[in-house]
Amino acid sequence: MTANNVHDKIVDVAFRLFYEQGYNRTGINQVIEEAGIAKASLYNHFSSKTDLLLAYLHRFNDQWFSGADKLLATFSDPKQKLLAIFDYRINNQRKGGYGGCAFIKISAELDNSEPEVTKLVAANKERLRIYIHKLAVQANESHILSNEALTDLIFLLMEGGLSSAPIFRNTKDLESAKKIVKKLL
What we know:
By secondary structure, the protein is mainly α. It folds into 2 domains: 1-47, Homeodomain-like (Arc Repressor Mutant, subunit A), CATH 1.10.10.60; 49-184, Tetracycline Repressor, domain 2, CATH 1.10.357.10. It contains 9 helices and no strands. The N and C termini lie far apart (51 Å). The protein is elongated, with a radius of gyration of 18 Å. The longest helix has 25 residues, at 115-139. It has helices at 3-21, 28-35, 39-45, 49-72, 78-95, 102-110, 115-139, 147-168, 172-184. The model has no long low-confidence stretch (mean pLDDT 94).
């Protein structure tokens, strides 16, 4: 097995465990066992559990935005793109067992004890806000709300709906948020 394959296998296992169980409830020994590797192999790729967490969050971030880009590329109407981002979130929650947002979960678990992780979480949320803002500008619906206000509204509704998914084990609030935004568009 190549070094890249071992690295990816470790991140694959951490990806699943950190999301499903949480970072604090996942031990390095569990990652090693489920990845089927030696402890030395893990530490050849990651100097600490925090480094593994950062790799997980980077991968989650990259995969999420790549998937969003792929879905939104199927729409030409910017308004439909704004609504489709809700569908993307809804589908991801259903596929992920209503686990909520990986970044919010990690932020709550670490409580700012890891500054590099906190910075990455904030960067993810800012990237999402910018992503939504670009779509809002393209939709050009500023006759009801400014692009900034529409961005804030969509971002906050989406984040709120996402936060309630693991509590209620459904996407009802995300679906309601989408309906609200659809009425505004």
